Structure formats: C-alpha cells, structure tokens
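Name: HECT-type E3 ubiquitin transferase
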Amino acid sequence: RKEFVDLYVNYMLNESIRKPFEDFMQGFLRGCPTRNWKIFLPAELQIVLEGQKEVDWHLLEKNMVYHGYCPSDETIRAFWTVFHELPEEKKKMFLALLSGSDRISACNLQCSVFHIANPFLPDPDEYHPFARTCHLTFYLPR
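Structure predicted for HECT-type E3 ubiquitin transferase:
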C-alpha cells in the first residue's frame, strides 16, 4: 500500500504535470533568464515578481501629476480627503482600478507616475470617474 500511495502521489504531483511545467518554465526563462535572478535575495525576487504589498498612500498623493487640475483645487482636496478615510482594502481597489494591480511595482512609487485628469466633460454630473490603466490615469469629473 505504501508503495502504491508513494507512486500515486509522485505521479499526481510530479509526472502528470511535468510537460506543462516544462513548457511554462521554458517560456518564463525566455522572458526572465536565470542569470538575472541571481542578483536578488529571495525576498527581493519576490518583490520584483509580485510587487510591494505596502503602499505609502501619502507618497502616492504627493507624486500624483494633475492635468486640468491643481493640487489646491476643491475637487482634488475633496478626493484626497475621502481617499485617506477609506479602509486599506478600498485604497488597494482604487490602485487596481488605476494601474491594473493592487500592488506597486518593485521600484516603488518613485518610478511610477500616476495621473489625475479632468476629462472636460460638458456636464460632469452626468459622468462617473473612470481610469485608463495603460496610462495610469484617473479621470475625475469636477
């Protein structure tokens, strides 16, 4: 029985997935060769691959670039007041809306330039805020 269980477990966890895993590994190594991994400690590599879990939300606000707004505009001040009152989970949901991920890239906020833009809509009360993740831009009607 033990031999059967050992062979079954080996098949399920190793042999049955060998070909798909090798295909995955080949593609992964094409995009991220192992020679590049060796410069990182395991914890650093995890951050590079996953992104940072902790976000300094005040730094996000400080580094935000505005288009059609000034940081002192009432709409922007009201936005940040409400934003900073949100629970962490909701803030991460906003980050996911803005960037497509609820984590910041490994190079931190200094490398990522986020934008808040005025979409200059004819009747802003008729529109909801929206985002363009490829441009890291959040469109906030007045």
